[in-house]
Amino acid sequence: MGSKQMKGFLTLVLSLAIALSMAACSENSNGNGSTEGDSSTPAPSAPADATTETEGITFPLPEAVTFTIAGVNGTDGQNPEETGFFKKLSEKTNVNINYISLGADAAGAIEKLNVLLGTEDAPDAIMGASAMNETFLALYAKEGYLVAMNQYLNDPKIMPVFNSRVIGENPDILKGITSPDGNIYSLPYINQIPGNYLESPIWINKVWLDNLELSVPTTLEELENVMAAFATEDANGNGDPADEIPLLARTGAGFEHLEAWLSLWGIPTKDSTFENFVFVKDGNVIFAPTTEEYKAYIKTMQKWYENKWLWNEYFTGSPQTFSAIQNDAGAAKYGIITAKNAAGNFADQYIAILPPVVEGYQPKFYLNPAYLTGSKGQFELTSNSKNPEILMAFIDQFYLMENLLEAYNGVANEDPRLTLDNGVYKVNTIPATELANIPSPFRNYFSNNLPGAVLESDYMSGKIEMSATDQLKGQTYALYDEAGVINSEVWPRPYLDPEDATKLNEMRTDIFNTVSKFRASWVTGQSDIDQEWDGYLSSLQSMRVDELTAIMQKTYDNYMSN
């Protein structure tokens, strides 16, 4: 989303928010709109019947066609083809699917794909990002197991919706999904709400502050004074001064992680689970855990842990325990969290605050690169597909706003999660106790996301009623954006050259395990970072961390030059 579009959208967000309150009381553009892979060579092992010219595909097809589609399935019970959305789409297109579950986790999915791809049992396509990370995408494409989709994406007779809504309205997204060889092997999910991509702003319990007659902290010292008060006084007012957790965070999470606090030292990144610990500064790709800023941050986290300001089950607590704290029925149990928005039974007690200033540093908060590229890796076409034009035309249907909304939430006015009134869609929040009695939507059978798009224009034209939660995300984004604390040099997660992907795959495990081991030891006070820092850096050097960073730099430079 360009900067001009972003500002226009934020105006919409804020005006909607004001209307709601009254009732209640993308950068890095190549600029030419072209597809980056137009002049590239075709991918190896493309099916023989794949053509670049067609008379067009009209749905419903005169004869039914069935495709085999594989996905990571975290949902038990019915198959995705039995959902109301797919029955409706199948009637519209005369396309059926034979679903292959790759299991409930990404590691198991890769193992199954390794067995299936290149055989007669290979699926026609793979759907859902959990089934295909960037490393394996590069390797599978190199081996010819995946087919370049450029010719279909650029053909408005095969993919008219993609041409209109993605290439027409958001041509820069093509840059983000193009591999180094100029081909596109995977399709994105696009959701253009800016607040979605500011993943870990800081939320603080305003009721607790008021109860203790404290002000919103604006510096690190003030923040620590607030946490000290939260830890020792009855901030939640339930009579127990010992049941408050000043800072709630958890390891391995997408948003509520400690790395969000690295932003106070000007380092916008996430851990190895999500972002390889890299960030970009002045065009240079930097591995965060080797910097002096990281060392200062770790010392601060150790102080917070020692004083029990940080939840002391950060490294060991289960997601269930974390959720139980958020949803305590009696009183709010945590004072501060980093997340897209506050959650739980007392979410309305929290307000977003600007990052407290650490002396000598400019805060820079992480922005998920999906705002530039879409959420990548949601659909891949395999070399086993017998009718790729029809399959791609079928997938094109998911880029219609109404189809994607129903894929995620069920058929409008049939499923309580989605209503349609006078041409306006509304996604409804259903209590968890009621969700258990509602059949899973199509999206739940393909972990992470689906290919498709909900665009800025869909909101600005009034086709979708923006939820109060999304309006709040937009307000928080505007707060951070106007203060200049959002990172402008985003690491775009560019696709890797196959040889580089292989090298990174070899290096990352040892490097990231070392970073994680020392981080846990230092934060919990089991060892001293000052005594171990030089040896730690030497260990990473021996594991070729400089080579890892050089590969990331080369990949980033290639991306920026397109």
TrEMBL record:
Keywords: Signal
InterPro entries listed in its UniProt record: Bact_solute-bd_prot1 (IPR050490)
Low complexity bias spans: 38-53
PANTHER family, alphabetized: ABC TRANSPORTER SOLUTE BINDING PROTEIN-SUGAR TRANSPORT, ARABINOSE-BINDING PROTEIN-RELATED
Residue ranges, compositional bias (Polar residues): 27-37
Source species taxonomy: Bacteria, Bacillati, Bacillota, Bacilli, Bacillales
Signal peptide per UniProt: 1-23
UniProt region (Disordered), positions on chain: 27-53
Top-rank taxon, per record: Bacteria
Name under which the protein is recorded: Aldouronate transport system substrate-binding protein
